[in-house]
Amino acid sequence: MNFASDNVTGMAPEILQAIAAANEPAAAMPYGDDDISRGLDALFGGIFEADCQVFPVATGTAANALSLSILSPPYGAIYGLAHSHTNEDECGAPEFYTGGAKLVPIRGENGKLTRATFDATLADQGPAQGVHVVQPAAVSVTQATEMGTVYAPDEMAEICAFARANDLYVHVDGSRFANAVASLGCRPAELTVGAGVDIMSFGATKNGALAAEAVVIFNPELGESLGFRRKRGGHLFSKMRFLSAQLEAYLTDGLWLKLAGHANAMAERLADGLSDLDEVEVSFPVEANMIFARFPIGLVEQLYDVGFVFHHWGDPDWPTVRLVTAFNTDPDHVDRFIDAAHAHGTGA
Ligand SMILES: Cc1ncc(COP(=O)(O)O)c(C=O)c1O
């Protein structure tokens, strides 16, 4: 009964089968020159209703760092939320891959960067004139966000328009992009290329793949160096077909949205089930597959005692708890969590 992360999961059976099927031909050309890998641009192009260049990699950190490396010079500024994965959880990979660009933190609201908070940061900073300051290069936003909220198409379009007016490229960390699309029920293009996004890290690992992410480039001016940077960064897999097979299966017959829809529905069920508990305070709107809430420590300990796994941190008496659901979360585990939470303090 593990709600620690969507990384605790195994694989969706369809993806496991696709890996096995990719193993059938005894030989296939390496380094992305196989049939499945060569079909990815067209496959993603169909999903995003636009020409795009697709570069599979095995981790979200690599996808983010490689994406940012083509958006910013070493002396550039990349704007993003202070608590973003790129800023807090990638061990300096974006700085390393860009050759030293500076990540400039921006305040968020409900886990989202807004036009107003972005504007305020740029205004505080003043004009980037002269050799003494980093030069504005890009903005990076996460969709779905690290706080389990989502940017609607009009919010994305507003950020992109503001970025464009300030000569900034736009990157989306889409490690949970499927959860956002499933939540909003919109076309993937509306959140990306249609809104003005230049490049995204498209995730699949958290939502049913073994290890498959992709850099997806929408802006045709940008792709030239990515292949070299991916090789140099150690992410050009010789047996690329096994990564590509995961992405192909993921995007076939709407599997990605079916899996994410289940994860989201489990989060909603959990949030609904906890909503009548006075001692539980949910911190952000639950719009994807993550719940952040404050629980009394006694409740946290009791839930651990009966076998639930999840993270908590912060205030020793009333910590913040993160509950993450996934494509294969068992509804029975959700219901048992809700029951156990209601039993707290009753002696049941
Ligand atoms: C928002 C976000 N971006 C990117 C990643 C990718 O991380 P990894 O390099 O572990 O695949 C994660 C994983 O937790 C994440 O939560």
Number of strands: 11
Overall shape: it is globular
Please give the order of strands in the largest beta sheet: 1-7-6-5-4-2-3
Low-confidence stretches: none
Largest sheet: 7 strands, mixed
Q: Could you tell me the radius of gyration in angstroms?
A: 21 Å
Coarse structural class:
alpha/beta
User: Count of helices?
Assistant: 14
Task: Tell me about this structure.
With 348 residues, the chain is an alpha/beta fold. It contains 14 helices and 11 strands. The strands form 2 sheets. Strands 1-7-6-5-4-2-3 form a 7-stranded mixed β-sheet, sandwiched between helices. A 4-stranded antiparallel β-sheet has the order 8-9-11-10, with helices on one face. β10 and β11 form a beta hairpin. It is globular, with a radius of gyration of 21 Å. The protein starts with 12 loop residues before the first helix and ends in a 5-residue tail after the last helix. Bound molecules: pyridoxal-5'-phosphate. The site of pyridoxal-5'-phosphate has 9 residues, from α4.
